[in-house]
Design brief:
Structural class: alpha/beta
Largest sheet: 5 strands, parallel
Protein name: (D)CMP kinase
Number of domains: 1
Shape: globular
Bound molecules: cytidine-5'-monophosphate
Keywords: Kinase, Transferase
Organism: Vallitalea maricola
CATH topology: Rossmann fold
CATH superfamily: P-loop containing nucleotide triphosphate hydrolases
CATH architecture: 3-Layer(aba) Sandwich
Helix content: 40-55%
Length: 222
């Protein structure tokens, strides 16, 4: 079988990981979560008291950091210098640090190399911010998932409540707005819809509706 690469990009909370996982399962191919790699990098910085504006230090430690992925029961695990850090990378603090350090071009180039290597070996669904525009410009299918800031903040609010964390909706909306701004306005490989990507607004669609819509698009590409 030919290798297929499906690129799913979009802002935080648009539903990328949920949708990408389901699509990978339907097609029996691998799901690659690139945000988890930036999170692992962010975790390293937090653990080593490096702040996101210390670019000289970050550029100097690039070679000390080894990030790779493996799968346990079909779930992607991120390995940071021989340690499986999956259980630590979902904290809010790590997400914020990931968003801040992902502005650094050298950090991006390091992680893009890993992402491109993965895509040449196997058929994958890869989600992130720059997959269709920069990491895999020749991807078989490119999807740009979007939703209004309000919808994305409400989803995040509900997700946190389910974990027993109560946070003010407005502060979540504010944080998402800042993250969008950083992602869309960084100099190198910013978040934007690739010219040949199809945009799907998930605000008023169920998960299954989005998945079915995308599966149809993928099938139409063959
Ligand atoms: O997708 P997730 O929220 O886990 O990603 C964490 C952060 O990593 C994002 O806020 C984004 O700034 C950054 N990121 C990126 N490029 C990617 C994936 C994630 O800049 N391909």
């Amino acid at each position: 079988m030919d290798i297929i690469n499906i690129a799913i990009d979009g802002p935080a909370g648009a539903g990328k990981s949920t949708i990408a996982k389901k699509i990978a399962k339907e097609l029996d191919i691998i799901y690659v979560d690139t945000g988890a790699m930036y999170r692992a990098f962010g975790l390293y910085c937090i653990r080593n008291n490096i702040s996101s504006n210390q670019n000289d230090i970050i550029n100097n430690i690039l070679n000390d950091i080894d990030i790779s992925i493996c799968y346990i029961d079909g779930e992607q695990q991120v390995i940071l210098n021989d340690e499986n850090v999956n259980q630590f990378i979902r904290d809010e603090e790590v997400g914020k640090m990931a968003s801040e350090i992902s502005v650094n071009k050298n950090v991006r180039l390091k992680l893009v190399e890993l992402q491109r290597n993965l895509a040449t070996k196997k058929s994958i669904v890869m989600d992130g911010r720059d997959i269709g525009t920069y990491v895999l410009p020749n991807a078989t299918t490119k999807i740009y998932l979007n939703a209004s800031v309000e919808t994305r903040a409400k989803r995040r609010h509900k997700e946190l409540l389910e974990k027993g964390i109560s946070r003010n909706l407005e502060s979540i909306e504010d944080e998402i707005g800042k993250r969008d701004y950083r992602d869309m306005n960084r100099e190198f490989a910013p978040l934007k819809k690739a010219d040949d990507a199809i945009e799907v607004d998930t605000s008023n669609l169920s998960i299954d509706e989005v998945v079915n819509k995308i599966l149809k698009m993928i099938n139409n590409n063959y």
